Amino acid sequence: MCEFIILFLYFAAINSRINKHKYHTKLQFMAKELTSRSENYSQWYNDLVIKADLAEASAVRGCMVIKPYGYAIWEKIQGQLDRMFKETGHVNAYFPLFIPKSFFSKEAEHVEGFAKECAVVTHYRLRNDDQGKGLVVDENAKLEEELIIRPTSETIIWNTYKNWIQSYRDLPILINQWANVVRWEMRTRLFLRTTEFLWQEGHTAHATREEALEETLKMLQVYATFAEEYMALPVIKGVKTESEKFAGAIDTYTIETLMQDGKALQGGTSHFLGQNFARAFDVKFLNREGQLDLVWATSWGVTTRLIGALIMAHSDDNGLILPPKLAPIHVVIVPIHKNEEQLSQISAKAEVLKKELESKGLSVKYDGRDTHKPGWKFAEYELKGVPVRLAIGPRDLENNTVEVARRDTLEKMIVPADTVGTYIPELLANIQENIFRRASGFREKNTHRVNTWDEFREVAEVKGGFAYAHWDGTSETEAKIKEETKATIRCIPLDNEPEEGKCIYSGKPSKQRVLFAVAY
RNA sequence: CGGGGUGUAGCGCAGUUGGCUAGCGCGCCACGUUCGGGACGUGGAGGCCGGAAGUUCGAGUCUUCUCACCCCGACCA
Predict the structure, then answer these.
(1) What is the pLDDT of residues A456-483, one digit of tens each?
(2) Does any strand B atom come closer than 7 Å to the Cβ of A36?
């Protein structure tokens, strides 16, 4: 308690020192060449992915190259999620990219759901054509059984689990894998929907229904915590309707997020698979009572799509805004100098600050390149969403100060150089919080409780955002609503309060509101 | 997979009723002056005009086919 008070007073003292030197400037310039959100939101997104150097289209239709800066964000996401999976008792493993076609047909709903978008390997050899047509498929090298490139791994995994499980003592199995999957999509967009994408898929096996259900919800909560605390993205947890659930699941749980254009984006899913896959692959175990029983299953995943969510939730017309906890670079230091001598003095000072900040666990980049002017660098790092920028010029050398600029608000202030080591970590925490608060505020402003069909249509077709509305619980009504407005039921929220009402479409009685939105 | 659009230098574009050595801006390279919000000057490099076939004395330009990408629908994380 005593330490706490001392610490508090210490920070208060620093803050008052900073305030003396503080000035605010709201910057009005626009980043060159970046389409504004109001002009064309979807173009803004495309521009941003390219200009921030996150990814680009590849020579392969529908597939992207994730560039180093984009991949660095994915590595931050992976790193944190992997820690959280381990903390909840999971281990990593790896299963094959190829799945024998026959495995797929074993679970009826599952095939039904994925058959339309599978890439299939039919041959295993190429040869040089005798007629000079170049390299051709060797028809003599046809596979006995075609291989599917995994769109998801339930089938190969449950085929394997069958051999691992004999008794309740072999359970639970709590495995995750980091992998790539392929789903042959017609229309693709960088990060949001590509033919090949990276993801993580957890596959667990349990002795009881209760335990599997608990696992499903536990991992949903891991995703929700990750989204809110790391991505600074508020989520709504819920369960999918029959028509929106995973092919082969009993229930699909989801975290739903809202993007700046008013469209919803599913951030992660956790499936309660019941005994469906155990039945399909004949995975039985001897329970404590000495009876054979089918194993209970879950699976759960998030994909590189999260990077798309990160971009669309927070960024502005100047470029990316990354939450500090997922930013590859926390702080960039830019020198401002008139000559070589000044540059070397400033560099020396910058290196000291860099070391100090790095000792606090921050990732710091000093950009001492002489090939670009400071203004160019400012714009560049704003485009890339680096949360904090320090600028050091001759005036700062004289006054022993640095200029601190925060990316989320574009505010600039002068602070004493000696306080940087304590001030910056605080500022980063503050930015993380502010971004989350801003996204939450946006979501609140764009969440509507609607009671009539007209109100509903206005949200779906004009205003955008989430609509809480009564629904009669039938797939028919759900399909009609989608057909007429493009809005879908994102989920039935877990924290729903029961409420008597009438379905906005059919007028039939309803016991609760469900969450509707037009979605990505 | 249906409807619409675009392919000319790394990127964004111009290129006339078919005609001479295919241009412009940005970027790139060299040198110099600059550097507290995307600097400027001078010089330079860079093109099988998406690909194939055809019409023609002659094709970036006309015809056919093909491929890729973008936008709108159906499908999806």
Answers:
(1) 999 998 899 999 999 999 999 999 999 8
(2) no
